[in-house]
Structure formats: C-alpha cells, structure tokens
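Good morning C.,

I know you're traveling, so I'll keep this short. The sequence:
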Amino acid sequence: MMPLQPEPQFRKTTMSAQCTDHCHTPTASADPRYRRILWIALLVNAAMFVVELGAGLSSGSASLLADAIDFLGDAANYGVSLLVLAMALQWRARAALLKGASMLAFGVFVIGRVAWGAWQGITPEALTMGSVGLLALAANVGVALLLYAWRDGDANMRGVWLCTRNDALSNVAVMLAALGVFGTGRSWPDLVVAGVMAALAISGGWSVVRQARQELAHASKENQPQAL
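The tokens, ready to paste straight into the viewer:
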C-alpha cells in the first residue's frame, strides 16, 4: 500500500504491508463512484477492527488481535487518504506519524499478548477464531469485488484493489490457525500466526513513522524563509 505527489508513502500492516507503495486513494478528481466505494471500504474495515478486537479478547486468540491491526491499518489508510488528501504535505505527514505510532502500539500489544499466551498456555476458542476469520474473509472479498471494476485503472486504483485482495491472505492465515488449534488442542498455531503478523505490523508502523519524519523535515525546509 505508486504514491501521489507529494503524498507520503503510507505503510500497511500484516499481509497488506507487501503492497505498501500502492495503497493510496486516487486524486480528488477521481470518479465519485470510486470515492464512495473507498468510503464503504473504510467503514467495513473499521467495523471489522472492532469485531475482531472484541472476538480476539473474548476468545483469547492472539491471531485475531493481530488481524484486527490489519483492519485498523486499512481503515486508517483510507481515512487519512480521503480526509487529508487536499491538505498541505506537513499535515499529511503528521497524520501518517499518528497512524504509524498507533500501528506500533498495537503491534507491541499483540507481541505482549503472544508472550503472555505462551507463558499461560491457554488454548483459544477455535470455533470463534474460525467463524470470525471467515467473516473477515467475506468482508475483504466483498470490498475486493466492489473495487474489481477499477483493477485496471491507474496505479493508485489498481494498488488499492491489490491490497484489499492480499488482505484476504491474513484472514486465511487466521482460519488455518483456528484449524491448527482445533486439531492439536494447543495454542501454538494461534501464537505463531499472531507473532508473524504482529512483527509485520511493527515493521510497517516503524516504516510509517520513519517516512513521516522525513516528510516533516522536508516540509519544514520548504517553509523556511530563504536568505536574500
């Protein structure tokens, strides 16, 4: 998740981190139908973040919590792109800095949850993991179908569709973890998937922070009065 100029390169979490440099919304002159679909995608991702966060906490699944970060990163990416697209570079960079810090915080939280789960040895509820993972997969597939008509548009349009399609891989990973928990009666499949996804979230969040700081430094230099 190619960037707009001079759009900062927002990073995405977990599986969607693989398509970082493409995941931006198009310019304000884009088809209004496309912008409406992006708003739908934002709302779907925000809702699924809440669902997976609650399900992860109630079921004891660390991989659901990690997947919730992915939905949070997606929602933040759509929201930041839509709301601050027309603002100055400095404000876009500040928004990205806040997003990156949030991603880092949630990633560290999941890593802590993985460590706690490994120490306690509590087995998560496989049924909840699988059912919520399936719901998340349906949400991402639904958004991907809405974006399908724009898959061959400009780089930004195609990038958003590809990122949404790739997000489904993290949902599949959660469902495989649920299957592993169900089959083994142990928590390690959930912890392994969660650890990998949280590590990618932390990596993506740090990339956002680093890029945002570079953008802020660049904007500050541009705003400095030039000596006569």
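Safe travels,
E.
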